[in-house]
Design brief:
Layout lengths: L11 E5 H14 L4 E2 L1 E2 L1 H6 L2 H11 L3 E4 L2 H10 L4 E4 L8 H6 L2 E5 L2 H14 L6 E3 L14 H11 L5 E3 L11 H16 L5 E2 L3 H6 L7 E2 L22 E13 L4 E2 L5 E2 L4 E6 L21 E4 L2 E6 L7 E4 L12 E5 L5 H7 L4 H7 L6 E4 L9
Parallel strand pairs: 1-19, 2-10, 3-4, 4-5, 5-6, 6-7, 7-8, 8-9
Antiparallel strand pairs: 1-11, 11-14, 11-18, 12-13, 14-17, 15-16, 16-17
This protein binds pyridoxal-5'-phosphate (PLP).
Length: 378
């Protein structure tokens, strides 16, 4: 176990590295012969890129995907031996920086490819990079029609990409026809580059079918315990949990209002607890409980209770009228934990668990638990 950080306020975020490792290993098993990478963009989905990078490397992961080259530089310090791909592609005029930190851009346009090939030529070394084809996502990536031109450029230069990849738009919806269509287009691309390893699947693609595994899979959310496929039970172990303290408890009467805008009017005499959490901590204002529509839910002593009124910047009221037993200021409220999953908050805020996970890292200290032997934590 790591040395526990403490604050005067108490509360905080806990990252279970044991669960993280179990999740990665379970995905690695499902992916069979395909290599299992780990996507650690967005500070490892809000869980800490350096510690998570070291932990997954220790568990056997060798291939990592970051979004930005700066994330790559950070990760490189933590895992000197890893292969690191940069999903944003090649930021213009920075090729030498990628090479200096041994980062592989996932090249996504003709101008990026040309710049990288020129860089390799000047350097006299085929510096590794991957290629991203856009099979319908319409985000970054070569267009389908550019495949022949890319092939010609590669043949002329003799450059062998490390990998060819694409990204699925709808793999979280298991019956969506888009996934099969993208897979078909991807195979069309791969036919032109028969000797190059291929990668298509995110977490959902990995879990959906081995048809999408190819040579490498790229899970992100499932490694962190989030739900990858809609409408199915989530088989992954939770990695992230969070508790915050109660600041004050008050009895309020039926008809009184709660919080900014007097947006919630009490329908009964109620016991309110004011917890030290607000939108400045990443607890979205969309989780306000203003009657009618669904608001956020938290747990107190194992009882799930609603948010009442608007979430403000640093404080939020919850209704503890129905919580049995004594509740006092300083007691901790479960924001994410055994009773409240990341994806429950995502649903209540009308977004997805990914956004909750990457945002809920506010001002509370992060503690790592179940730290594998020999892993240094930040
Ligand atoms: C974020 C991302 C992934 C990981 O997706 P998850 O749904 O979190 O598993 C894989 N590939 C690319 C290109 C991505 O941008």
């Amino acid at each position: 176990m790591s040395e526990q950080q403490t604050t005067i306020l108490g509360g905080g975020i806990e990252i279970d590295l044991g669960a993280l490792v179990r999740n990665w290993q379970a995905l690695d098993k499902v992916s069979g012969k395909a290599l299992t990478a780990a996507v650690v963009k967005g500070d490892a989905y809000g869980t800490g890129i350096k510690t998570v990078g070291r932990t997954l490397y220790h568990a056997g992961a060798r291939f990592f995907f970051v979004a930005t080259p700066d994330e790559g530089v950070l990760l490189r310090k933590a895992v000197p031996g890893a292969f690191i791909f940069v999903l944003d592609g090649l930021v213009p005029r920075t090729a030498a920086d990628y090479a200096a930190h041994n980062l592989m851009p996932v090249l996504a346009s003709m101008s990026q490819l040309t710049e990288w090939l020129d860089f390799c030529l000047n350097r006299g070394e085929a510096t590794p990079a991957a290629l991203h084809f856009d099979t319908g996502f319409n985000r970054v990536g070569f267009r389908m029609q550019e495949a022949d031109l890319v092939k010609r450029e590669l043949d002329q230069s003799g450059f062998q990409p490390q990998m060819i990849m694409s990204h699925l738009a709808c793999a979280d919806q298991p019956t969506h026809e888009m996934t099969r269509k993208q897979n078909g287009l991807f195979q069309g691309i791969l036919n032109r580059f028969p000797d190059t390893p291929a990668s298509l699947a995110n977490s959902a693609g990995l879990m959906a079918s081995k048809d999408y595994h190819y040579h490498m899979v790229r899970p992100g959310i499932a490694v962190y315990g989030g739900k990858a496929i809609n409408g199915r039970p989530n088989p992954m172990a939770p990695v992230f949990s969070m508790q915050v303290p109660i600041l004050q408890i008050k009895e309020a009467r039926i008809g009184e209002t709660v919080g900014y805008g007097a947006a919630y009017r009490l329908r009964r005499d109620s016991r309110l607890a004011i917890m030290a959490l607000g939108y400045a901590d990443g607890y979205f204002r969309a989780l306000s409980g203003i009657g009618g529509q669904q608001g956020g839910r938290v747990a107190v002593n194992g009882t799930v209770v609603p948010v009442l009124g608007r979430v403000s910047m640093d404080m939020t009221a919850i209704d503890i009228t129905d919580v049995p037993g004594l509740v006092q200021p300083g007691d901790l409220v479960e924001i994410v934990g055994p009773n409240i999953a990341i994806d429950d908050i995502g649903d209540a805020a009308r977004t997805i668990g990914y956004e909750i996970l990457t945002t809920l890292n506010g001002r509370f200290p992060r503690r790592y638990v179940n730290v594998p032997e020999g892993i240094e934590v930040d």
